[in-house]
TrEMBL record:
Bilayer-crossing regions: 321-346
Membrane topology: Single-pass type I membrane protein
E.C. code: 2.7.11.1
UniProt-recorded name of the protein: non-specific serine/threonine protein kinase
Location of region: Disordered: 266-310
Taxonomic superkingdom: Eukaryota
GO biological process: defense response to oomycetes
Gene3D superfamilies referenced in this protein's UniProt entry, alphabetically: 2.60.120.200, Phosphorylase Kinase, domain 1, Transferase(Phosphotransferase) domain 1
ATP-binding among keywords: yes
Keywords: ATP-binding, Cell membrane, Glycoprotein, Kinase, Lectin, Membrane, Nucleotide-binding, Receptor, Serine/threonine-protein kinase, Signal, Transferase, Transmembrane, Transmembrane helix
GO CC term, one of those recorded: plasma membrane
Name of the top EC class for this enzyme: transferase
Length: 711
């Protein structure tokens, strides 16, 4: 009897242990699964760090400022997510879907981008610039896994271009990377971009998909295997990190859903990110982050709302039979649709005629008009392999005209209103200009909603690539000829045109080189025409940091003297082989503070060692008197006081030896402005000053920013 009782107790104990084991596993499975989206998140569910903030239901990672600055921000889910099982270190499967946009208040100043990040730290924000807020000030990683969406080619991180997606494992040098141009996605377009990131903990498959469409592409842009357990802790934070690098980029997360579990994605599908909910499922009283984007919300949401509103009926249609109601509704719908079609047809026709007439009147004096079919054929249907660069407001393709075999450069307008406006500005200005040192506009095309500009293709590319990416250093005779050519072009724009043209974006990447290394100044997307002896209007500062005159940043008024300052930066860059703003490398190979080229050259001038600024790669192969004259011209053009800067006609005379270089003070003068220089309204001035104060407080020095604009 006792033995029988023991057996019963043993069986009960085993059953109890088994039940507890099953329950425990179930609890672990439930507790380790995470699922959320923007519809269910509350403000308390998000950690907004650094510059990150909310704006009309979107999460913005960087500030909305019109003055280029360096900043970084993070937005993280407030609760850590389990990414490894205790003991076994089995990695979790996860899936996330998010929609984001990258817009720019100043399209000519780009950089740096944003990233979906898995990080062990939920409190710190890394440094600004190309590190996307993921690296600390010493350049060390914080133990992260990130999928970056980069808008600037940073040589320091071996970037392939300024429009790519990559996987970063505790380093900004991507282990997996691909060019987004191959799928016709432009991160800088300002359009909504969708991304799907999926990881299967069982198969270790990692897939990244990107598209403008709401439908996930059948083939991911990146697909590889990864032992995620080697790069994550048991618990990690998930979210987004973004930064600017001397730019006005705004990084917005419009929608985000995330799901993780310890089941295989491929088996049950439990790891797929939840879809955007309908409006009826949202809780308006829960302070939810936002409703789904209109393009993603199912159409049934509107139906649900309408049906609830019409549940109580008081009109005569409700009191009649179903047939009468159906008949009236059908007839009404028919006439409404018919009237709508007529209105749409005539309005479209009117708008098309109006736009065509307006556009034609703007370019009546322009060069040849090309057909869309002709340029489409020349660029192989605008094949991504034909892309040779990105201008301020469009993409540049190499083309070969089928009728004569001429090689051309075709600039395709960005698909936004600002891009089209800037294209029209460029077209209306450069189409009337004729100078040997300006990029020649061959023609234009305006068909099928596209605006295309056709230029001569410059076989030797841009000056910045010749200076910094060529295998051998650019010889000094070429450099001096290039500087003289650019000075001649600016003198023509400032003093010899019917209307004065202020370029506003003079920099080495906008200077093209023909087969004889003659300079051709291009990219007139930011240029403005002004009548001679008439003051220009104040606008938001446009251009690239390092080339912008100090008074232009403060007042927003571009004059010929702001172009002279930009030219001075180009002169010093060409003579020294150093960028206007670049990061200094310390003795241990770490990136230090940013170095300002003008300050450095002026310090050498103060010490009586001006020739030390000459590019060491030239190995002394230059005339010292000519080099000294060029460096002094560069400093004279970089004078803080715009009234003390020479004219471009005077610069040409100095470079050819027809005029003496003005006396350049040994110590750099301090920046002073008379009241006549402060041309903005009080409100605009305060706004711009606040932006500059923010800039100085967020970073002691500006990080290197290098534009990638062509033509």
């Amino acid at each position: 009897m006792l033995l029988f009782s023991c057996k019963i107790l043993t069986s009960l104990n085993l059953s109890l242990v088994f039940c507890l084991f099953v329950i425990n596993n179930a609890v672990i499975t439930i507790s380790t699964a995470t699922e959320f989206d923007f519809g269910t998140l509350t403000l308390a569910s998000l950690k907004l760090l650094g510059d990150a903030h909310m704006n009309n239901g979107s999460v913005r990672l960087t500030r909305d400022v019109t003055v280029p600055y360096d900043g970084a921000g993070k937005a993280l889910y407030s609760k850590p997510v389990r990414f490894r099982l205790p003991g076994t270190h089995t990695p979790a499967s996860f899936s996330t879907f998010f929609s984001f946009s990258i817009t720019n208040l100043n399209p000519s100043s780009i950089g740096a981008g944003l990233a979906f990040v898995i990080t062990p730290d939920g409190e710190q924000v890394g440094s600004a610039g190309g590190s996307l807020g993921l690296l600390d000030e010493k350049g060390a990683g914080l133990g992260f896994v990130a999928v970056e969406f980069d808008t600037l080619m940073d040589v320091e991180f071996s970037d392939i271009n300024g429009n790519h997606v990559g996987l970063d494992l505790n380093s900004m040098v991507s282990t997996e990377v691909d060019n987004l141009d191959t799928i016709n996605v432009d991160l800088k377009s300002g359009d909504l971009v969708n991304s799907w990131i999926e990881y299967d903990g069982l198969t270790r498959a990692f897939n990244i998909s990107v598209s403008y469409s709401n439908l996930k592409p059948k083939v991911p842009i990146l697909s590889f295997t990864l032992d995620l357990d080697q790069y994550v802790n048991d618990f990690m934070y998930v979210g987004f990190s973004g930064s600017t690098q001397g730019s006005t980029e705004i990084h917005s997360i419009e929608w985000w859903s995330f799901s993780s579990s310890f089941e295989s994605n491929s088996g049950t599908g439990s790891g797929s990110a939840p879809p955007p909910p309908t409006a009826s499922l949202m809780n308006p009283t829960a302070n939810s982050v936002k409703s789904p984007p209109p393009s993603l919300a199912p159409s049934g949401s509107s139906t649900t709302q309408k049906s609830s509103k019409s549940s109580s009926c008081h009109n005569q249609l409700c009191k009649q039979g179903a047939g009468a109601v159906a008949g009236v509704v059908t007839a009404s719908a028919f006439f409404a649709i018919f009237a709508g079609v007529l209105i749409w047809f005539f309005s479209k026709r009117y708008k098309h005629v109006k736009k065509s007439e307006s556009f034609t009147s703007d370019i009546i004096r322009m060069p040849k008009e090309f057909s869309y079919r002709e340029l489409r054929s020349a660029t192989k249907c605008f094949n991504a392999n034909r892309i040779i660069g990105h201008g301020a407001f469009g993409t540049v393709y190499k083309g070969i005209l089928p009728q004569n075999g001429d090689i051309i450069a075709v600039k395709r307008c960005s698909h936004n209103s600002q891009g089209k406006d800037e294209f029209l500005s460029e077209l209306s200005i450069i189409g009337t200009l004729r100078h040997r040192n300006l990029v020649r506009l061959q023609g234009w095309c305006h068909e099928k909603g596209e605006i295309l500009l056709v230029y001569d293709l410059m076989p030797n590319g841009s000056l910045d690539k010749a200076l910094f990416e060529a295998r051998s250093p650019l010889p000094w005779p070429h450099r001096s000829k290039i500087l003289l050519g650019v000075a001649s072009a600016l003198a023509y724009l400032h003093q010899e045109c019917e209307n004065q043209v202020i370029h506003r974006d003079v920099k080495t990447s906008n200077i093209m080189l023909d087969e004889g290394f003659n300079a051709r100044l291009g990219d007139f997307g930011l240029a403005r025409q002004v009548e001679h002896d008439k003051s220009p209007d104040a606008t938001v500062a446009a251009g690239t940091m390092g080339y912008l005159a100090p008074e232009y940043l403060l007042t927003g008024r571009a004059t010929e003297k702001t172009d002279v300052f930009s030219y001075g930066a180009v002169v010093l860059e060409v003579a020294s082989g150093r960028r206007p703003i670049e990061k200094e490398i310390t003795g241990v190979g770490k990136v230090g503070v940013a170095s300002n080229l003008v300050e450095w050259v002026w310090s050498l001038h103060r010490e009586g060692r001006l020739l030390t600024a000459a590019d060491a790669r030239l190995e002394g192969q230059f005339d010292e008197a000519e080099m000294r004259r060029v460096l002094l011209v560069g400093l004279a053009c970089s004078h803080p006081d715009p009234l003390a800067r020479p004219t471009m006609r005077g610069v040409v005379q100095m470079l050819v030896g027809e005029a003496e270089v003005p006396i350049v003070p040994r110590a750099k003068p301090s920046m002073t402005f008379s009241t006549s220089h402060l041309l903005l309204s009080l409100q605009d001035s305060v706004s711009d000053c606040n932006g500059m104060i923010t800039l100085s407080s967020s970073s002691s020095e500006n990080d290197f920013i290098h534009g990638d604009h062509l033509v």
